[in-house]
From TrEMBL:
Name of the protein described by the UniProt record: Lysosomal Pro-X carboxypeptidase
Chief place of localization: other
Compartments where found: Lysosome
Function: Cleaves C-terminal amino acids linked to proline in peptides such as angiotensin II, III and des-Arg9-bradykinin. This cleavage occurs at acidic pH, but enzymatic activity is retained with some substrates at neutral pH.
Organism of this sequence: Acipenser oxyrinchus oxyrinchus
The entry's keywords: Carboxypeptidase, Disulfide bond, Glycoprotein, Hydrolase, Lysosome, Protease, Signal, Zymogen
GO BP annotations, alphabetical order: angiogenesis involved in wound healing; negative regulation of systemic arterial blood pressure; proteolysis; regulation of blood vessel endothelial cell migration
Length: 507
């Protein structure tokens, strides 16, 4: 446990992404918190989930699209739903799977299910290689750098292109169907990049909460944690101050054995804290909890990363009104606050600092991607944000990657491959972002051209627009979804009128 920083103090401050606050101090965690709704509570999510009905298929993909020495194939999983599809022209909405089980993304992308009928669309959910069931080398896929070598966004995009072409050729009635890429988070980045790299395959893309600019020198490294902090500041008086002050209170207590024991009891921890190292780990677990809450601060009861009440940060902040309490009182309140996140069901026996979110995400795979292409600098200063000051230390990050995976990150590659801020030559991409979502800081929020549409949803957390319609949705997300559908219809119309050209401008 102690030999690698990764597996000891480190944790992936994650979720759909690694937030590298403690880049050199992060660990891979999975979850097993109870996911059952409280008795008698049936969320609207669940009622709507009854709509979800798909068939599962597998497609033989080349393991390496870009070289010829490795000629074998693997089975890529994809899901199809054709209940509403108008064959011979009805569009294909193609979800560009991200780092996890595709069935879970399918379940959490209600927007596609909600609009399928109106658009007469076929729904396709394509799993990303190395996640879920789509493992190029089976159980060996993660065994070493050699086997992980084909885990890149470029390979994933090529998989999507091959699968799309296959569907258009082999699926009766699909030949004339325009394809629209849709994705959220890293999946949103892939949707945008799919349109950029394969404009002859997809007529347009909806990239929701896609931080395609969260790369070196494109946005300030502190923007992410500042947005998290703003969410807490705006959800209750004293809230972010309480959290800012809590780090020192933890330090104070964990400087003695008695304090470590007190903290372990007060937080109902499954495994007591025993050392300074455990204390660091505990703090990064707390940070990750606040970050996750910011991502899923949805206006209604939901279960994405964890089962949570409506506007969970407001609920959390009810416990954090008094920042200047003595250490123990302050930390008792912090415990009540994190319990909102970990124990909404009331079924949690103890808090496990090794886990912070759903087990449907592929943490190790994402960490490998962060250690190769997806290098997203993050930092905090403790002043404009409520976290402990932490610089972005590329060298330490790189050393950790080398130790963990035997590879070193290439911090400039994503910008070379995908254009960085220089994307004005592309077209028909919607970038939607939620004002509450920390990932919006690395998203495209400025006007570039009329056919690169930017939509901001001020009351939205992480890809709220891709979720099922809900009676508690704010007006802003309803408007965003309506606009998204309008653009999709426009792209479809343009291709139907003008099948040769798929890159017309929106008028
Ligand atoms: C805590 O979580 C880790 C990672 O999911 C798991 O391996 C471990 O068994 C859990 N511990 C307890 C006490 O639940
Ligand atoms: C997706 O939803 C279906 C229907 O509610 C459920 O049976 C299945 O377990 C869910 N899968 C995942 C991975 O969440
Ligand atoms: C931590 O200990 C120091 C020194 O005893 C004290 O001044 C401070 O108030 C304590 N708590 C916090 C949150 O700083
Ligand atoms: C979770 O909530 C239940 C019901 O309030 C409580 O009995 C239990 O102790 C809580 N678990 C933790 C870890 O605090
Ligand atoms: C973007 O690309 C164009 C054309 O290659 C070039 O003229 C321009 O300087 C680039 N802009 C940036 C910000 O790199």
């Amino acid at each position: 446990m102690a030999s690698s920083i990764f597996t000891s103090v480190t944790r992936l401050a994650v979720f759909i992404f690694v937030t590298s606050l403690v880049s050199c101090l992060q660990v891979i965690s999975a979850i097993n918190a109870p996911n059952l709704p409280r008795q008698g509570v049936v969320s609207s999510d669940q009622i709507l989930r009854n709509l979800i009905d798909y068939k599962t298929y597998y497609f033989d993909q080349k393991i390496d699209h870009f070289g010829f020495a490795e000629d074998s194939t693997f089975k890529q999983r994809y899901l199809l739903a054709d209940q509403h599809w108008h064959k011979d022209g009805g569009p294909i909405l193609f979800y560009t799977g991200n780092e996890g089980d595709i069935a879970w993304f399918c379940n959490n992308t209600g927007f596609m299910w909600d609009v399928a009928e109106e658009l007469g669309a076929l729904l396709v959910f394509a799993e990303h290689r190395y996640y879920g069931d789509s493992l190029p080398f089976g159980e060996q896929s993660y065994s070493d750098a050699k086997h992980l070598n084909f885990l890149t966004s470029e390979q994933a995009l090529a998989d999507f292109a091959m699968l799309t072409e296959h569907l258009k050729l082999d699926l009766p009635g699909a030949k004339h169907s325009p394809v629209i890429a849709i994705g959220g988070s890293y999946g949103g980045m892939l949707a945008a990049w799919f349109r950029m790299k394969y404009p002859h395959v997809v007529v347009g893309a909806l990239a929701s909460s896609a931080p395609i600019w969260q790369f070196k020198d494109l946005v300030p490294c502190d923007v992410f944690y500042k947005i998290v902090t703003d969410d807490f500041s705006e959800s209750g008086k004293g809230c972010s101050e309480s959290i800012r002050r809590s780090w020192k209170a933890v330090d104070n207590l964990t400087s003695t054995d008695g304090g470590l024991q007190w903290l372990s009891d007060a937080f109902h921890l499954c495994s007591p804290l025993k050392s300074k190292e455990d204390a660091l780990f505990f703090k990064s677990w707390l940070s990750e909890t606040w970050v996750n809450l910011a991502m899923v601060d949805y206006p209604y009861e939901a279960n994405f990363l964890q089962p949570l009440p409506a506007w969970p940060i407001q609920v959390v902040c009810k416990f954090l009104r008094e920042p200047s309490l003595p250490d123990k009182d302050l930390l008792q309140n912090i415990f009540q606050a994190v319990n909102v996140y970990y124990n909404h069901t009331g079924n949690t026996q103890c808090l496990n600092t090794s886990q912070t979110a759903t087990g449907n995400l592929g943490y190790i795979g994402w960490y490998y991607q962060a250690c190769t292409e997806m290098v997203m600098p993050m930092c905090s200063n403790g002043v404009s944000d409520m976290f402990e000051p932490q610089q972005w230390d590329f060298k330490a990050f790189s050393d950790d990657c080398s130790q963990q995976f035997g590879v070193r990150p290439r911090a400039d590659w994503a910008t070379t491959a995908y254009g960085g801020k220089n994307i004005s030559s592309h077209s028909n991409i919607i970038f939607s972002n939620g004002g509450l979502d920390p990932w919006s800081g690395g998203g495209v929020n400025v006007h570039i051209s009329d056919s690169l549409v930017t939509i901001v949803i001020p009351e939205g957390a992480h890809h709220l627009d891709l979720r099922f319609n809900n009676p508690f949705d704010p007006q802003s997300v309803l408007k965003a979804r309506a606009l998204e559908v309008q653009y999709m219809k426009q792209w479809i119309k343009e291709t139907t009128l003008n099948p040769g050209s798929q890159s017309n401008k929106i008028v």
